[in-house]
Amino acid sequence: MEVFEDYKRRLEKRFPRRLEESEGEIESLRIRLFHSLKEAKKYDGAEKLYHETVKKYDDAKNLSHVTVTGRDPTKSEDTVILDLKHSFAGMLIELKKFQEAEPISRAVWEKRKQCPGPPSEVSKESHRQLCSVLCAVGRHRDAENMHRDIYQSGTMDAWALENGDEVCQRRREQGEFRRAKEMQDEVWKERLKQHGPRDDLTIRSGLRLIGFLDELVTIIDQEGGTDAERRFNISHKQAFKCEIEVILRTIWDSRLHLEPTIDILDAGHQLGVILSSQSKFADAEAIFMPVWEGRKRQLGERAGSTMSTGSLLGKALYRQGTRETYLRAVDIFQGIWLVRQTVMKNGDAETVASGEDLAQAYRSLGDWPNAERAYRWIIHHKEQRPGCPTREIEDARWNLGQTLYKQGMDKDREAVRVLGTLYHQWHASSPNSNETLQCGQMLGQSLSTQNGRIDDALDIALDVFNRRGASAESGVAYLDSGRLYGSLLLGVGNFAEAERILEVVWGYQAVGNEEQEMRFKCGQLYGQALAKKNKYPDAKKILEAVAEAQGGISTGILDIAETRRLIEDVNRQRKEKEREKRSNGRRGGFLYRARQQ
């Protein structure tokens, strides 16, 4: 700062009469240097220069000196000095010195708010700065009061509405969500009336209002109380959710006039999420599709928000449950999965989740080979990811095991390897869990096709059958376990045990078509077991009962045809047996007569 003193001494020596006029020029140089030091983040030098400049200004003011601006400092503080103080307060805020910034910022605001007429932009900026400092030092109520004074000043112009938005934020910071929501609702409706739903500030007010409503819903979810209070809270919660949907639709529908902005696309995304949560998947698809296309145009297909919307679009299609929507979901999931692999780490959670979405869609289409490839990729990357929970890896292996099982005998060897490891792990920790028993059922079926593994298959099938029978929830799974164990017993020639097991499951009181159809499969096997024991009348009786019942619930034609074939097979076996007995009888009589002679 010696440059100014040197400059001043030289002026005084050469032009003593111009010294007074040069004070303004020196002050201007100091202020410009202050801003340069501040921008260069040389804060110590900037602070020292600020204090020197303000001190000289105050000294001149006390001496009733008239500055180069021609204004009397005793009557009105120099605008340039106010700007300097405002900038210095901003520097202190950058340095997190909020306590030091607050009195300076307040002094500037107190001076500027005295100016007649509508507030200028610099006055508004001083107001914003002081409010931000008050919030930083924890004085949210004081900041709220400052914003509220502007909002309630009588003229509902842009400045008042901006402060209305800020009142809501201050109330939110103090945990007053209901009061914040009420004020934000006022501001939203006023902006809507003045500027329409397309205005950017209107949209942002609407999105803030949605944020408050979401927080109120969360608070209600956490509240207890009496039954009456809970019912009252539930009605409020539903009302808040309806408000959210109405606001989002208002914002989203504004896109019809022009290309939707980022905020409108955000509103559409949120609306699609709400519709999906209501199981309105076709409606959600109709929202997500233009949001996805709009985000691809504006942000690119690699943006995280674009991929997020695409994933939700794929899920909305998938949840509609038709082959056509499964195929469309696969196309979307494939694209997102490939993009995630190029822009993110292959094994990160979001990329793996996209792979899981795709694999599930493949499974629904019965495209087991592609599902298998996806699950192998998922398992590999989950195993490579540090800290990945063991259960997540097991779940991926379980999905792979099911996919291998569905591909039939060609994949049974691999299915045995994957399912066997899981079954023994789960059986040791939770032998009666539904997942363990499902795994055992598939493992037993796959083992039965492997050379030398039939005894292992029988042991597992028996264990599953017994545990299913002991469970309070029997149903289809219990019948299926009996079907598997009974069929394995038939395969090894243990007809008596097969008859006993299949008689039990055939006598099960099935409820619903799914249980009835599984019971009929057990009945077919029961009839075969009786036939193997030469109980042909009983076998025929059971199979005819199966055929009659199948017709009663409109079972598939192929199932009924199979039962008819089994009946014919039993009749054929009975006739062959009778023919054999007659033949043996004639042969026995001839030999007896021969011995008598």
From TrEMBL:
Residues 574-583 have a biased composition (Basic and acidic residues). Residues 574-597 are annotated as: Disordered. This is Uncharacterized protein. It comes from the Eukaryota. It comes from Letharia lupina.
